[in-house]
Structure to design on (253 residues):
């Protein structure tokens, strides 16, 4: 009987140890996963954003004979004012 | 403009319904431009707006302005009286309407419309954004996690900071 209970006791202790260690081994796993996930999520939109935004430089054909303009024709920013004098 | 970063273009957009002299004023500027004095007349028209805006003889005032600028008076008068640039001004107006403009002044900065006389900051923002895109650079804003309450990805390319109270 003592031996039987002894084994049972040993089994219980081992089970408790496994149960206690288990979560510790599992817990860190989601953390890096979520970090990695957020990193990849952060990288992808940023790259997509850069790809879609950077080329958006509007080039206006400024005809010197028709348009009244000041500044370099090669300026990256063109501001057109539509106005009258009154 | 002096640094080559911004190109400024002026397009005629005379609102005839509320600004009856605007068409002829635009033509006057074009006629002055024919003699190489467009911007000088442009400035003079704005500076002297009160002299001709309510006048029954605005054209006469435009001719006087041409004299002030030292233009060939005969050529200028003929140009203005003959409506040499009437169709050009009308074409400019059509272009403005087609671009979606409905009030003066209206602006387009790299395709982004700013309607009305907005504060300087509105123009600054669009110009700086245009330069940012043209440069292909990225804006790095440091948000200290300890000093700010923030939501969203710390690596997000855009950071919106609100300075506010609760009342």
């Amino acid at each position: 009987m003592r031996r039987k209970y002894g084994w049972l006791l040993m089994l219980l202790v081992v089970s408790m140890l496994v149960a206690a260690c288990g979560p510790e081994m599992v817990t860190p796993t989601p953390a890096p996963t979520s970090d990695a996930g957020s990193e990849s999520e952060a990288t992808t939109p940023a790259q997509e954003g850069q790809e879609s935004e950077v080329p958006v430089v509007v080039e206006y054909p400024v005809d010197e004979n028709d348009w009244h303009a000041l500044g370099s024709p090669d300026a990256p920013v063109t501001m057109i004012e539509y106005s009258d004098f009154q | 403009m002096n640094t080559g970063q911004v190109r400024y273009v002026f397009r005629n957009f005379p609102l005839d319904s509320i600004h009856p002299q605007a068409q002829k004023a635009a033509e006057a500027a074009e006629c002055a431009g024919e003699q190489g004095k467009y911007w000088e007349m442009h400035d003079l028209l704005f500076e002297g707006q009160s002299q001709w805006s309510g006048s029954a003889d605005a054209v006469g005032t435009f001719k006087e302005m041409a004299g002030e600028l030292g233009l060939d008076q005969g050529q200028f008068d003929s140009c203005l009286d003959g409506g040499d640039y009437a169709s050009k001004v009308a074409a400019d107006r059509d272009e403005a309407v087609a671009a979606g403009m409905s009030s003066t002044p209206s602006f387009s900065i790299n395709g982004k419309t700013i309607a009305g006389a907005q504060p300087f900051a509105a123009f600054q923002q669009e110009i700086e954004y245009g330069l940012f895109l043209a440069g292909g650079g990225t804006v790095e804003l440091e948000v200290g996690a300890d000093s700010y309450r923030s939501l969203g990805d710390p690596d997000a390319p855009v950071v919106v900071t609100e300075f506010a109270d609760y009342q």
Remarks:
- Chain A has a mean pLDDT of 56.
- Residues 2-53 of chain A form one domain.
- Chain A touches chain B at residues 38-39, 41-43, 45-46, 49-50, 53-54, 56-58, 60, 62, 66-86 (CB under 8 Å).
